[in-house]
Amino acid sequence: MGRSPCCEKAHTNKGAWTKEEDDRLIAHIKAHGEGCWRSLPKVAGLLRCGKSCRLRWINYLRPDLKRGNFTDEEDELIIKLHSLLGNKWSLIAGRLPGRTDNEIKNYWNTHIRKKLLSRGIDPLTHRPINEPAVDVPANSFGAVSNQDRIINGFGCKNQNDPDEENCPELNLELQISLPYQNPPQPLDGNSGRKMLCFYCSMGLQNSKECSCSSGSSRGRSSRSSSSSDEFLG
DNA sequence: AATTCAAGCAACCGCCGACGG
DNA sequence: TCCGTCGGCGGTTGCTTGAAT
């Protein structure tokens, strides 16, 4: 007695998607929206598993996807988020508009891991590689010490009292907020570039510590709940 | 020019939690 | 409360492409 398969595998295509399949999927979603993935293939006339359709749409066909290389800013943001969240790719992707969890996961494994290794940082723990081994759980999420945060450039220690946290906002007690979208950003007077404080770069515009601005409004989706609205609240 | 190897990426697999009956 | 279904997620696989020999 195993779990029933997600679809009838004997009559589904696998492997790379053809242009025709893509077109069918796009046309169907444009006409009917993202409805029930399980029934979508049948309705759309696709010989594909519903999961496969969903993956193809989310990772490749969605119109709001940002294709192309990652910027240095995106690199650094991914590194910061990974040090805080671990391999929670969907959460990380939520902070990078136009990027998908799969894309970020692949990018991490192929580029950022090497980048960190070349800096002498263990991509798993975000610790210096030659630092004496400490008892670190396999999952680095939650295992990142204050020292690590300082090492990685977002120290939150109170300089006067190392035992006191200055950043209650970084209590990532698994309260998830929605991806922030285009918060108001002050301009750097010299370069004209938009400068974000750390809190904004992490999507924490509502943070008391935010030095950029206040009162920004953010988009909401149907999945939001009153508790998850208050990220780190 | 042919072959081998490695890197990059799209797609698949299986597990888990949420939800509804 | 239990059970089945579904969507979503993270890990992994395998194909494609380009570099090296």
UniProtKB/TrEMBL annotation:
Family matches, as Pfam families: Myb_DNA-binding
Bias (Low complexity): 210-233
Cellular component annotations (GO), alphabetically ordered: nucleus
GO molecular function annotation: transcription cis-regulatory region binding
Disordered: region residues: 209-233
UniProt KW keywords: DNA-binding, Nucleus, Repeat, Transcription, Transcription regulation
Record flagged with keyword Membrane: no
Protein known as: Uncharacterized protein
